[in-house]
Amino acid sequence: MNGPMLENPNESLDAQASKGELGSPLPFAAGIEIRPLTRFEEFRECVRLQEEVWGQGFSQKVPEAILIIASRLGGIVCGAFGADGTMAGFVFGLTGMEEGRVVHWSDMLAVRAGWRRRGIGSALKLHQRELLIRAGVTRMYWTFDPLEVPNARLNFSRLGVVVREYVEEMYGESGPPLHLGIGTDRFVAVWEMASSRVKSRIQGGVGAEVLDESLKLPSALEVEEEGERVRPGETRVDLEDPRILVPVPADIQSLKEGDVELARCWRRATRTVFRHYLSRGWELREVTGEGNPVHYLLVREVGE
Question: How far apart are alpha carbons 77 and 63 in whole angstroms?
Fold first, then answer.
């Protein structure tokens, strides 16, 4: 899933930072306390917050019982609380085994509308990382929409994830109103939380691959300009270059509001490209560019 503050729609990492016990910057908004949920009323408030963010009747809502059990058995259910005790946001994830290794799946991260742009989302994500590394867990997964550029920028540029998997309609054709009309295709983010790449991005480092000259790389998808809008053209699935660009619209939500069929065209075209190259050994490393479209960078060799 994904949403206005779901999985990893974190806010900026440039909020006032304090050093965590592991030495990584933790950007806590002033007056915000982040801690595990412990009382039933807090778990119930977490459910209410889900409905507030994603709408009444949200089909993928996590109920109190699951949140309570997850918090007892290695999961993470933490809230961000204001000075008056208001739950401003929460993060929820499950810990389990993957091929003999303990890993964590971050399922939800949400911040109430009136509390956004204060660094709370980033603080929740990095707090989650801190707790997991203390417990010896160094790999985290979550999903995000390939067409949601703000999420992608934060995930790649500021947190240092990589993507090696594309899942078509991961959550079925229905979902929160934010995604109605274009389906629920998702990238699976891989966050190697103790890697040098992740540490560098959290501390403000910029990848060497995010360069202006990267825009000279071959593109797997042609773009046709239509005034202020851009339309996907012919896809290319015959490239063998070690670095390939994939354009996407800079603001899919505005595009969907103005022309939902064009938004669907972007979904179909990018689905073809991403599924082809990710299934053949490339991985996504970066998002680059400030105009419309912006570009993902596919890299063939897998590295840290």
Answer: 12
